Amino acid sequence: MVQTQKPQIVWSERLRNLTDRARENLVDGALTDAYKANREEVIGILNRALASEWSAFLQYWHHYFMASDLHSSALREMFKKQAAEEMEHARAIGERVQLLGGVPCTRPEDISSLTPTPVQYGHDLRSMLEADLIGERATIMFYCEVVRHCGNDDIVTRRMFEDLLEDEEEHADELLRLLYQFDATTSEQIPSLHEAPKGVAEAGVRRPEVMRAAGGRR
Ligand SMILES: [Fe+2]
Ligand SMILES: [Fe+2]
After folding, report:
1. 212: CA distance to ligand 1 center in Å?
2. Where are the chain's structural domains?
3. From ligand 1's centre to the CA of 59, what distance in Å?
4. Does domain 36-180 correspond to CATH entry 1.20.1260.10?
5. Which residues face 189 on adjacent strands?
6. In angstroms, rounded to a whole number, what is the distance separating the alpha carbons of residues 159 and 166?
7. From the CA of 99, how far away is ligand 2's center (Å)?
8. Which residue intervals of 32-72 are DSSP H helices?
């Protein structure tokens, strides 16, 4: 018959010498021997994420500045709001880098060399939104990898990136709904005037702005 230890005994064994272990390497602060991740590797990943957040912050501000025509006021506010949220993400990541004993990436040359999502500027409103959506989607893919990598070895970093991931998904969804239309009953995409199926333009369907420019009916 297999002898199994009672849970109380197992736990008293596990927790024995806890304060002795905590007394060791006191200078490590919050980092104890329960931290199982490769700290240097996590700091490297976090600094790449931080560089990515700075890039997103700059990209949204650039789009805020440049979306200056009369019809862009609502979008400008959205760019400003997203920029503020990316800065909050940068703050959270930078603080985590510091807690883990690293130096947060803040030098422009380090940001441009580390970011996996370089700043991309759109030439008009639509390409601005597309560039932002591409950036958000790339960030989502990156942060999914971070969550999987941290697993149970660095629980706080994992939880932080789960929260960031939720924000980035919301950003992407907001951009998606500005770029595309969806049927309210089926959620299927409705082709918009911007992306009329190939051949329609040749068949004589013209966009309203083209009609206005040609003196057509308003
Ligand atoms: Fe972000
Ligand atoms: Fe974002």
Report:
1. 40
2. 36-180
3. 12
4. yes
5. 182
6. 11
7. 23
8. 39-66
- Encoded amino acid at 102, one letter: G
Q: What is the token pair recorded at 47?
A: 């600094």
149 CA to middle of ligand 2, Å?
20
Q: How far is the CA of 99 from the centre of ligand 1 (A)?
A: 20
Dump pLDDT digits (tens) for 4-63.
Answer: 778 888 888 889 899 999 999 999 999 999 999 999 999 999 999 999 999 999 999 999
d(CA 112, CA 182): 36
Q: Tell me which residue has tokens 């590797």.
A: 41
How far, CA to CA in Å, does 112 sit from each of 42, 44, 120, 193, 217?
19, 15, 12, 36, 49
Count Cβ neighbours within 10 Å for each residue of 64-78 and write b for 16 or more, e otherwise.
bebbeeeebeebbeb
pTM comes to: 0.83
